[in-house]
């Protein structure tokens, strides 16, 4: 009887602690990405954002279609398009800028790094031998017009 009471107390304690534990464990924000099935730099970009606190769900079809659906103008297109928090993320946008976007919540379509610049996340592997080209992360307004969100030099 004594053992049964101890087990009941442990179970009750576990049930009391379980809800507080579940609040302590935050889920990583989900980025959904559409990419070319043969693109290696897209996988490298996904690895970058995962290392920086996101979870990535990738689809190997539909990049052009989702870009159009999200309203991202074609001139900012890249090898992959992603979606998080209602924002389009086009190309090799650093995780740091995605986090900033989600905090600031500007009225915008999203962020873009067009033209796959060497040195941007996913375009920074050993095959580039440390080369880093300057590039801008663009904030694409609801009117489709860009403004510089952050410059990398």
Explain the overall architecture.
The chain has helices spanning 2-24, 40-51, 63-70, 95-104; strands at residues 30-35, 55-59, 80-84, 87-91, 108-113, 135-141, 146-152. The model is unreliable at 3-24 (pLDDT under 50). The chain is of the alpha/beta class. Strand 1 (30-35), helix 2 and strand 2 form a beta-alpha-beta unit. The longest helix is centred in the N-terminal third of the chain and has 23 residues, at 2-24. The relative contact order is 0.14. The chain has 4 helices and 7 strands. The termini are far apart. Strands 2-1-3-4-5-6-7 form a 7-stranded mixed sheet, sandwiched between helices. The chain has one domain (29-152): Glutaredoxin.
Entry summary:
By secondary structure, the chain is of the alpha/beta class. The protein has 4 helices and 7 strands, in the order H-E-H-E-H-E-E-H-E-E-E.
**Which structural class best describes the helix and strand composition?**
alpha/beta
Count of discrete structural domains: 1
Helix content: 25-40%
Please report the distance between the alpha carbons of the first and last residues. Answer: 71 Å
Biggest sheet: strand arrangement: 2-1-3-4-5-6-7
Name given to the CATH architecture = 3-Layer(aba) Sandwich
Q: Name the average pLDDT.
A: 87
Characterize the overall form. Answer: globular
- Radius of gyration, in angstroms, nearest whole number: 21 Å
* Number of helices in the DSSP assignment: 4
H-E order? HEHEHEEHEEE
* Largest sheet report: 7 strands, mixed
Unreliable stretches covering 5 or more consecutive residues: 3-24
What's the number of extended β-strand segments?
Answer: 7
Q: What amount of the residues lies in strands?
A: 25-35%
Any idea of the CATH topology?
Glutaredoxin
